[in-house]
Design goal:
Blueprint lengths: L2 H24 L2 H24 L1
């Protein structure tokens, strides 16, 4: 993996983590649980789609 790609990946993860913490203070718990479920399902679909090709 290239160093530039790793830097972009780490930066993206840090921004997403910070946004998640910020949203946890602003949104109610049930809405956060719904968003988390959607993200996990989408990640699973993307991984399964990659594996079948």
């Amino acid at each position: 993996m290239c160093r530039a790609n790793l830097r972009v990946l780490i930066g993206t993860c840090a921004v997403c983590f910070g946004a998640g913490i910020l949203l946890s203070f602003l949104l109610p718990g049930y809405f956060l649980a719904f968003i988390e479920a959607v993200v996990v399902i989408a990640a699973g679909v993307l991984l399964l789609g990659k594996r079948n090709r």
